[in-house]
């Protein structure tokens, strides 16, 4: 009780950090549980052929069928990939989660130049019909910074989180 009275800003910042972590965990758990719920879905031949023509070396493949499309998650070259296909086998969108070594070199060089004291924690690459963007999570001893970059390396800070004190 004394801690609450003496340091309310510390408690509030810790609660905010915990909420963000809980939200991320809930989101990831929901995605993974959805892939298990409908693992026996009947996937159209068109979607399967399209998938195997691009991701022939994928492993740990899990499909989920929805009304108008399919969701598939899998591993490819140590990269977690999640993709959405329509019933005709067209790839609608994908998300890839990886470390800095898979980031395009122009973006990697710019991040290292602009943020030399921060380490790249994880990259989320989002591709859809409009193009590809990269969300780059940077980490240092003070907290995290989230960058959004297009393929040309144009970047903006989308969020910052401080570590609780």
Give structural notes:
The chain has 165 residues and is α+β, with helices and mostly antiparallel strands. Helix content is 33%, strand content 40%. It has four helices and eight strands. It has an eight-stranded antiparallel β-sheet, sandwiched between helices. Strand 6 (131-139) and strand 7 (143-150) form a beta hairpin. The longest helix has 30 residues, at 8-37. The chain is elongated, with a radius of gyration of 19 Å. The two termini are 18 Å apart. Mean pLDDT is 83; it is low at 1-12 and 25-40.
Short characterization:
The chain has 165 residues and is an alpha+beta fold. The chain has 4 helices and 8 strands. The protein has a domain of 67 residues: Nuclear Transport Factor 2, Chain: A.
Which key phrases capture this entry?
single chain; 165 residues; alpha+beta; Nuclear Transport Factor 2, Chain: A; eight-stranded antiparallel beta sheet; 4 helices; 33% helix; 40% strand
Low-confidence stretches: 1-12, 25-40
The top level CATH class name of the domain at 99-165: Alpha Beta
- Report on the biggest sheet: 8 strands, antiparallel
Architecture per CATH nomenclature, i.e. the level-2 architecture of the domain at 99-165: Roll
In percent, how helical is the residue content? Answer: 25-40%
Tell me how many strands there are.
Answer: 8
Taking Cα atoms only, what radius of gyration do you get, to the nearest Å?
Answer: 19 Å
Strand content: 35-45%
Q: What is the number of helical segments per DSSP (H or I, 4+ residues)? A: 4
* CATH-derived topology of the domain at 99-165: Nuclear Transport Factor 2, Chain: A
Structural class: alpha+beta
CA-based shape: elongated
* N-to-C SSE string, H for helix and E for strand: HHHEEEEHEEEE
The overall pLDDT average reads 83
Q: What is the rounded distance between the termini?
A: 18 Å
For the biggest β-sheet, the strand order reads: 1-2-3-4-5-6-7-8
């Amino acid at each position: 009780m004394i801690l609450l009275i003496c340091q309310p800003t510390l408690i509030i910042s810790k609660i905010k950090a915990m909420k963000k972590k809980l939200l991320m965990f809930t989101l990831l758990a929901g995605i993974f549980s959805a892939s298990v719920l409908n693992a026996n879905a009947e996937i159209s031949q068109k979607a399967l052929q399209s998938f195997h023509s691009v991701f022939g070396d994928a492993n740990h493949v899990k499909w989920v069928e929805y009304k108008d499309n399919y969701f598939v998650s899998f591993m490819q070259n140590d990269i977690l990939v999640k993709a959405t296909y329509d019933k005709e086998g067209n790839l609608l969108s994908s998300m890839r989660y990886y470390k800095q070594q898979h980031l395009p070199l122009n973006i990697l060089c710019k991040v290292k130049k602009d943020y030399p004291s921060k380490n790249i924690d994880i990259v989320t690459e989002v591709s859809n019909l409009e193009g590809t963007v990269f969300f780059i999570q940077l980490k240092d001893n003070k907290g995290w910074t989230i960058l959004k970059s297009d393929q040309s390396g144009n970047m903006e800070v989308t969020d910052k989180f401080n570590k609780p004190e």
